[in-house]
Amino acid sequence: MTTATPGTIRVGVIGIGQRAVIAQHVAASGVDAAVVAASDPTEPGRARARELFGAEVLVTASHRELIEAGAIDAAIVTSPDWTHAEIATELLRAGVAVYLEKPMAITLDEADAVMTAAAQTRTPLYVGHNYRHSSVARLMGSLVRRGDIGEVKAVWCRHFVGNGGDYYFKDWHADRRHVNSLLLQKASHDLDVIHMLAGGYTRRVVGMGALSLYGAIADRATREGQLMTDWFSYENWPPLAQTGLNPVVDVEDLSMVLMTLDNGVMASYEQCHYTPDYWRNYTVIGTEGRLENFGDTADGVVRVWNRRRSWDLAGDAQYPIAGDSDGHTDADLLTVSEFLRSLVGEPPELSPVAAREAVAAGALATTSLRSGSQPLDVPELPNGIRDYFASLPLASPTIAVAR
Questions:
Q1: The pTM is what?
Q2: Which DSSP string corresponds to 173-240?
Q3: 183: nearest Cα among 283, 106, 76
Q4: How do the domains of the chain map onto residue ranges?
Q5: In this structure, are residues 379 and 65 in contact, taking their beta carbons and an 8 Å threshold?
Q6: Which stretches make up the GFO/IDH/MocA-like oxidoreductase domain (predicted)?
Q7: Which residues 6+ apart lie within 8 Å of 151 measured at CB?
Q8: Which of 136, 221, 356, 372 has CA 20 to 30 A from 142's CA?
């Protein structure tokens, strides 16, 4: 077993699937912390833990064994979505600080149970909404905060999930029992960024959606022990030619959400899992202009229009997007580092309240779309829980653009 020197934060990794690699950022966080343990209920997962973190780490079949052994001070929870609430709640009540991969939970009740456990025990909770820390989101947020488009009135997001067939319809993500809907698993990133750009949280929501394409594919397969990287290929095209879908496919592959936020901002989100391209497009409209991103990784650009005119693709200002050329590894490093720094006294930028509100919007939008698109009001956190998190210090967002 890896032994940590006195004062080192002992980190355990819970659930060794596709996202467990983010724990490798612990070593680069600048904090005296080390991965010393991991748990996974499957033998392939436990084997991956040894490959990722070294043969000397303590590897168990359950997070409860790590709790009972007093082996860890903090945990990075990257287990499947439907296990998040139970695992996080048990860790928090045991006094183990938690980094919880998004979404916080797959229902609002479960999310509020996690928030309650953190508040009652005063145990640190951080939810890894890494897209909030992506270069494109930080750039757009900086432009909004410094007033380049005036007061925000509307936020629109179109999400072209070109890899959706491979990412979400060949394993447990396709089964609503395990994710509720992809408005939590996938859209929670974007709902969180919409809230950040708008400066408020969703209080009324309407959803529409359908399993409009992948339900027609009859070829199914069981992929126990495999990860997405084992079957992913850009050659899996066109979408109706996909093979080996999950035995259960009952989540929507096309969805749309309308939102009214608590500050009056109106927002929309659209998600399609069978587009040829894979990226997000945000449009933010304010009282003095609008901004829009073209591309969402390095080599993309955010453009601002703040003069009246007819059509003009270039806009009045352009700001290059830095960061990764593919994916969001840079954002993963920032979130893991922010979590660990928060354990040594540096306030994080992101409150767990934001993660709860992303679940709230996604879960209620799912209920709406599955019940005839009726408008639903999104409840706030109970007062005592809300007051506790409001009392915790937060750092100012990082400025990602110079004037």
A1: 0.95
A2: GG-HHHHS-HHHHTTHHHHHHHHHHHTS-EEEEEEEEE--SGGG---B---TT--GGGT--TTS-SGG
A3: 106
A4: 132-330
A5: no
A6: 140-292
A7: 286, 287, 288
A8: 356
